[in-house]
Amino acid sequence: MSGIGGISTLADHKRRRIEELTARTSEAGGVSLIRDAGRRLLRNPTAMVGAIIILLFLIIAIFAPLVAPHDPVQRFPELTKDLTVDSIPGATAGHPLGSDPLGRDFASRMIYGARQTLFVGVLATFIGLLFGVVLGAIAGAVGGWLDVLIMRLTDVMLALPSLLLAITLVALASRSTQWTVIIAVAVVNVPIFARLLRGSMLAQRESDHVLAARALGVRRRDIVLRHMLPNSLTAVIVQATLTFAVAILDAAALSFLGLGDPDINRAEWGLMLGVDGVRYFEVRPELAYLPALAIIFVALGFTLLGESMREALDPKNRR
Amino acid sequence: MVRVILRRLIQLVVTLIALTTLVFFWLRSLPGGPVDALLGERATPQTRELLTRALGYDQPIWTQYGRFVKNVVTGNFGNSIRTGEPVMDVISRSFPATIELAVAAIIIAIGLGIPLGYIAARYRGRMLDNATIIVTLIGISIPIFFLGYLLKDLLTQNIHIFPPSGRITTGMDNTDVTGFFVLDGLLTREFDATADALWHLVLPAITLATIPLAIIIRITRASVLDVLDEDYIRTADAKGLRNTTIRKRHVLRNALLPVVTTIGLQTGALLAGAVLTEKVYNWGGLGTLITDSISGGRDYPVLQALILLAAVVFIVVNLLVDLSYAVIDPRVRVQ
Amino acid sequence: MPLLDVRDLSVVFQRKGAKPFTAVDGVNFTVEPGQTVGLVGESGCGKSVTSLAIMGLLPRRGNKVSGEVRFEDTDLLKLRPQELRDRRGRDIGMIFQDPLSSLNPVLPLGLQVAEVLERHQGRTRQAALREARNLLDAVGIPDPTRRLKEFPHQLSGGMRQRALIAIALACKPRLLIADEPTTALDVTIQAQILTLLKQLVEESGTALVMITHDLGVVAGLCDTVNVLYAGKVVERAERHDLFAEPRHPYTHGLLQSVPRLDVDRGGRLHQIRGSVSDNIPWPEGCAFAPRCDRVNDACIGETVPLEPTFRGGALRCTNPVPQEVPA
Description:
- The complex is a heterotrimer of chains A (319), B (335) and C (327).
- Chain A is mainly α and 319 residues long.
- Chain A contains 13 helices and no strands.
- Chain A is flat, with a radius of gyration of 26 Å.
- Chain B has 2 domains: 2-73, no CATH class; 88-334, MetI-like fold, CATH 1.10.3720.10.
- Chain B is built from 14 helices and no strands.
- In chain B, helix 7 packs across helix 11 (243-281).
- The radius of gyration of chain B is 24 Å and the shape is globular.
- Chain C is an alpha/beta fold.
- Chain C folds into 2 domains: 4-229, Rossmann fold; 233-327, no CATH class.
- Chain C has 10 helices and 12 strands.
- In chain C, the strands form 2 sheets. An 8-stranded mixed sheet of chain C has the order 6-7-8-3-9-10-12-11, with helices on both faces. A 4-stranded antiparallel sheet of chain C has the order 2-1-4-5, covered by helices on one side.
- Chain B: It is a multi-pass membrane protein.
């Protein structure tokens, strides 16, 4: 700040006026990148649309038992009695979305589906993130032969297109469960997170603030934990947001290929779309449309938020 | 240049060796091994032992591994468990169908993606641009097998425009030369066969193209916008060059660099997408082969070969992309 | 008649979601044929925006340009984009700060010089390339025939700036605008480039607008100097007058903050308090007031006008640095 106090030739009210006007113009400076990014995010309608979709999805998933009219696995006699191979009852009193192919309340299954989809998406993303971050951090912080080994390992994993790798993993398991799906989708993301974190740590290793910390004699462990990891995490969070969308899409694709969870009681959107939805597409297309729309919306929500975050954090976009 | 290619080829070989080894040991580490997976848990000990011996699983693991590596190197992947035919025969029969589909899809994705991305960038912030962004976002958020069923439902059931499945009308008198039906028709001058094959190709190709198309549009748009901000575009403007010269010579050439890389990476999405698309349209290519080899008892010899093939294709395509990069970008050429 | 007459030029940035910002605020100056005029100021004072506005290179969206830019008989701001394109590169050339990013990385140097000749002189590619070789030779690039086929990243920083100068002067424009042409270069190269520029404009009679924050550049090159602060001209003077007797406290401060060999080593270097962002809007008084040593009550309240000085310059100050009375 300028030393306005030292100006003695000015009348008091004029001095105050200068201070006031100066404060107004220099207000913009000195905001940290993350807070600045957060502020820009709040002003960005795209990000807000994404956030609202995600919030809605979370609320439905968490409060599913309160929102859903029925038990999602219960078969209702009033629905099963009209059930045939080429006719599945539509909306009736008490069942706003009608029946699924087994005479269960479709609306309740859709609502509980949010919960299972969230479960699969979050776990697949988080497990992938955890292993990826640990591997990437080791590679980036330790370097040397360990770095080479980890990077070659990610090369091998990236040599297969992601969904194909997931298909391979599930196919190689002797039988599929919900966990094989989650783990397959998670493993696919490990190399992505690992490379992201390693790249970001390497970039920081040469950055001024880390060099400064090193010059001050800060221990290496502290440099990694306090200076490098937190800075890399923003990129990881952005990637995780985007990964969630891919994870639920991949899970749906696995279900479609007959590699999903075999539990017929499980209400999960990907499963509902990939198994019953496509099987009864010509009988009752809603069985496909509704879970598909739900998946599209949620994937869209996470993509919108993730991309806006990435954009907001890009220093190029600072004004 | 030659050194770069050599290094990448060595990398390819190392990756493949690692991949085969991983697949090999993964298979053997399954509870009960492939034999259980093949026969199910209710098989009698006799059948089990018979199959174990037949597949050579009674020998020490290192012997098995050595034989496996030798077979892979010589291109001998054994016989399909499902049909008993040599794996290479099964694969080469399905190969052309998938290539035909993938090539059609990539032509659509590039042919539409680059112009649309460029146009969106030119009309940045206007209706057209916003509409493009929204459509491409939906394109990457939609499960593509659902999109396939949707298109099929709309255009083959409700309105009979396209055939619902298969590569060619059954009973069509076409001569099989290369296995690429569109090409065969042209070679043998059976143009009705070409037309019919193309007709069958439209919907699957569009379905498969959706994700790469959406991504190419987005990358092209972002890349053009980046280039427009570059100082050298301002220099070109300061020279008073015509708009068309600036666009063609200065904007497009630079903007396409990241797009080329993306196209390489999208071959991955194509390979994976083919599995889904082929199932929807009953296409009968490698994707169908994967699905068939998984359901109905896992056909491990076929799966193994398919995984390796996918990795080879993906890595080779990306190697080619990197090489073409060196041709377009003089900064890479010199290093 | 002046070659370039900038009258009341203003540029307002209008960005979505942000308050309009006046980057250039009623700037006036003239350039006579063959004359070299300096625009001097700290970064953010509007000097680069002024040059881009003259060339019509500011994006149409988000920028509101008003005033007049008379080049000979025409107001460049009134020209249609196509007409302006015909003049850029032919009548007015421009060189930029960062020679690496200002050259297209994927095109050979020869084409980048030749294309401006093809465009404005209707030459064939071959003829243009032949002329490009001569131009590269003229700006002191050794082995020009070989360089035609090379790419920007293969040249040194000084070579690149020479190439940009060759491009800007290819069509023998009557005016050259140089926007911080030496800032991105090594000090030793800076001098070479300045000497080259000086020699070329003197030989060809091209007028030069030199935009810089470096008073050393001004001292070596410019006939007349305009000092800009927060988008307005605060002082204009002949080079000798400006250096001998700066009147505006800002100019004075700038000169005082240059290290000199002829003063005591023990003496402290003068510094101007605060930074460019510590200013007040012009309509409320003098933007420099918060940083000024000579501020008084008259500085606050209304715009301080730019008034002519008896030596043919101009000054925007209520309490200028006193002149030494000639003995």
